[in-house]
Amino acid sequence: MRILMFGWEFPPHISGGLGTACFGLTKGLAKHKVDVIFVVPRAYGDEDQQAVRIVNASDVPFDFNDTEYKEFWNRVKYMEIGSNIIPYVGPEEFEKALERKEKKGESYTSKVFSKQYKFSGKYGTNLMEEVSRYALIASAVALKEDYDIIHAHDWLTYPAGIAAKKSSGKPLVIHIHATEFDRTGENVNDIVYGIEKEGFENADRIIAVSNLTRNTVINRYGINPDKVVTVYNAVDQSLIKEIEEVKRNLNDKIVTFLGRITYQKGPEYFIEAAHKILKKDKNVRFVMAGSGDMLNKMIERVAALRIADRFHFTGFLKGDAVNKMFALSDVFVMPSVSEPFGIVPLEAMRVNVPVVISKQSGVSEILKHALKIDFWDVDAMADSIYGLCHYDALSEMFKKHCKEEVESLKWEDAALNVKNVYQPFMPK
To answer: Which of 85, 179, 261, 359 counts the highest number of beta carbons within 10 A?
Structure first.
């Protein structure tokens, strides 16, 4: 069984959970004798290719006038080029990005139809151009590679998956790690929503990372329930190891939020809970690790509440820096407004850090040894954090069981479920 897989990021070059999930899944599939050709917009050459073969889309030339592709693109509704939107970025930050581009003298003339195109692979001002070019490259790769099924991860790659399906006639599996409703709430970007809906409608099967996400796809996009299956994410077991103890020069408890500082992740509720706790106990420090469009707003709120001496903003962390942060932490909090799954709590639990998570997360469907609260219930969040910081018996109980629970969540098992999704579409 061979899969042509489209993703936007792959370790070690990742900006969130999507790349981590793709890495774990491909390693799991390899254990079940599934070969994966993984296409990314930009490869750096240091990706781990033990379980996959990486195809760098930036190295694939595409001649729009080539007769091999011309007939195909005449039959395909091509997505509009030149829409400058950046998901996860608010209007203020986007305006600054535009100003920077103008100062550099960069134009918005689309190079999407040029024979050679170098992807940035980032969420920049030319993102939609990159998504469009990626679809063109997908049609070229799809005609040249040997495979059985196409698998596309998240909306950035859906046009690529559709293009590959239409040029090859092979079945398409769409994998949803987050929908536009998760990222923005009700402030949905119509272009992104349209791309997602078209992807779901063209897919032969849809994999959702939780029942929460599955219900969103069915109810918000009008997709037939029989077409959508749930396969939960997991944790890379090779990463489960004791983290070296970090020396702390203070006795304060440390409570950590780690993730994108955006609407979806609920950072403002974390700050309000911190404020409530600090009224009772000044010997607690709060850390907000990450970056995002709400960062400045969160810094201003912390200043307004006069808790800046107890609150720390680290910026985006990755690799060993994440491990060190967990090693310092007494409690990890994920107060997401809408979290399709949520791998970070599992990463915290694997190193014995008790977690508080919102009920509005997919991972809450499978975790037993976690304190679960509604994201908006700041009082319950504060009580849960306070309890884990101050009652050793409670904290030790979670530490004892959480690592065992996480060790049972293996990518090998998740990959087998994905392979079972592929099976009905395999050639007889």
So the answer is: 261
